[in-house]
């Protein structure tokens, strides 16, 4: 996979996992309303997660900017824990 596609591919997988599965009952219970409604808005970005896609739409950018810091950080923590749970190496997106 080319270096420029790794972050997009990771984001695509992450969005699918989190939008379909949510953050789970424990994370949702910590915050009234949870992250799921915020993450569901990211469906507006799905067309922009493939290599060669155009720039994101205003709807996508708005959805991304509306995600709270707590939700974003919790989501990234979950995403970063997945490789070790699958017994594979951590994904390093720094080149």
TrEMBL record:
Query: Sorted alphabetically, which SMART domains does this protein's record hold?
Result: AAI
Record Pfam families: Tryp_alpha_amyl (PF00234)
Keyword RNA-binding appears in the UniProt entry: no
Which N-terminal residues, if any, form the signal peptide? 1-29
Q: Where is the Bifunctional inhibitor/plant lipid transfer protein/seed storage helical domain?
A: 35-93
Q: Keyword set for this entry?
A: Signal
The record's listing under PANTHER family reads: NON-SPECIFIC LIPID-TRANSFER PROTEIN C4, PROTEIN YY1
Q: What name goes with this protein? A: Bifunctional inhibitor/plant lipid transfer protein/seed storage helical domain-containing protein
Recorded source organism is: Aegilops tauschii subsp. strangulata (Goatgrass)
